[in-house]
Amino acid sequence: MKRLVKLGVVAALAFAATAASTAASAQTIKIGFITSYSGLNGNLGPYMERAVRLYLKQHEKELGGVKVELITRDDTGPNPDKARQLAQELVVRDRVNLLAGVVFTPNAMAIAPIATEAKVPFVIMNAGTSVITTRSPYIARTSFTLWQSSYPLGQWASKKFKTAYSLVSDFGPGHDSEEAFAKGFTEGGGKMVGSVRVPLQNPDWAAYMQRVKDAKPDVLKVFIPAGKTATAVMKNFSDLGLDKAGIKLIGPGDITTDEELPNMGDVALGVLTVHHYSAAADRPANKAFVAAWKKEYGANETPNFLSAGSWDGTAMIVEAIKQQKGKLDPDRTMEIFKNWKNPNSPRGPIAIDPETRDIVQNEYLREVRRVGGQLANVEIETVGTAVKDPWKIFKK
Ligand code: PHB
User: Fold this and answer.
1) In this structure, are residues 175 and 143 in contact, taking their beta carbons and an 8 Å threshold?
2) Distance between CA 18 and CA 208 in Å, rounded?
3) Potential cystine with 149: which of 110, 113, 252, 347 (Cβ 3.0-4.6 Å)?
């Protein structure tokens, strides 16, 4: 029975591959866009979709009459079975030319084999576990890896602090962040005094924070997925009095994600993070991006790092459409992706590494400060320039 089901999928995908080449001759490019609109941190999906739509709106004139249709689907949070099913439907039934989106690593991993079998290029605009891009030659990533932020964070922290405790969500990006930070921190002479992996959904925060408090580290380094989970960490850090006990909170920028800062309150002040994107960055390209966002979506709205990954991913897709005059060949598309760069993205200069199809970008040390009455991730130093995914370098 299992075998029959599998054969059915392969046959359907073979059909889809033929169908995709038919679709390619039409002048509408279909993007199957899978992200989270419900479930854990389900508020994040719109930060991605809005970026895609805004980029397309600004640049559709450059496409010489080719139309781009965005077909959006809700994967309901970290839910690989649902993501796989949606990707299959998008490929087989909707005959999309491209797949894109995805907040969560398990979902990206589930979609990867479908991209390979159907030869549908898949642009990852968030999910950040290093291994993902190795799972299909049809994946290119415009977001980040946790190694990119957490390794330089560990190196930087080792110069300021003697002891650290690591707390991460127990799934792919958490494991990467834990390993990368510990490597950077201990190589620099720091000592890890504790390390804990907490459930992705609804952990007993108070119990974990109490454990950290009892261990009295100089710093608590946290990775949890951006969104509401980040605010839960802040609240419990403060409620259990870790700040008053003199423990410094640090992490990759996911823990001070721009859209949640207004919900976090003063406990976030002074939190130090390393990341590739801040809405408060004063690069002209970022100011233009944030201004366009506010004009389109309202003065109180702010893009976040998921928006930046989706904005740049859409720029890369638009380039592939332009170069092929609207007739997308999957292998040619991947070649274009591999050689794509933008010296002037909102996050600074970026490029795709042709060997790994992963993003190359700067990493900035930031501090949460009050700017014009509001909390902001203020970039204070560039701690890594043109950083390639360190995991791919170390694991070679
Ligand atoms: C992921 O699942 O890869 C992920 C999710 C949220 C983040 C970072 C990474 O903030």
Assistant:
1) no
2) 53
3) 252
Per-10-residue mean pLDDT, the chain, length 396: 45 53 66 98 97 98 96 98 98 98 98 98 98 98 98 98 98 98 98 98 96 98 96 96 97 98 95 98 98 97 98 98 97 98 98 98 98 96 98 91
CB atoms within 10 A of CB 341: 13
Q: Is 51 in the pocket of ligand 1 (CB under 6 A)?
A: no
Residues 12 and 92 sit within 8 Å (Cβ to Cβ): yes
In the block, tokens 């790092």 appear at 305
| Residue 309, token pair as written in the block | 């990954």
**Is any ligand 1 atom within 6 A of the Cβ of residue 103?**
yes
| Residue 15 φ/ψ, nearest 5 degrees | -60, -45
Kindly state if the Cβ of 105 falls inside 6 Å of ligand 1.
Answer: yes
Q: Give me the phi and psi of 389, to 5 degrees please.
A: -55, 110
Please report which helix (H) or strand (E) contains residue 122, including its range. strand 122-124
**First-last CA distance in the chain:** 39
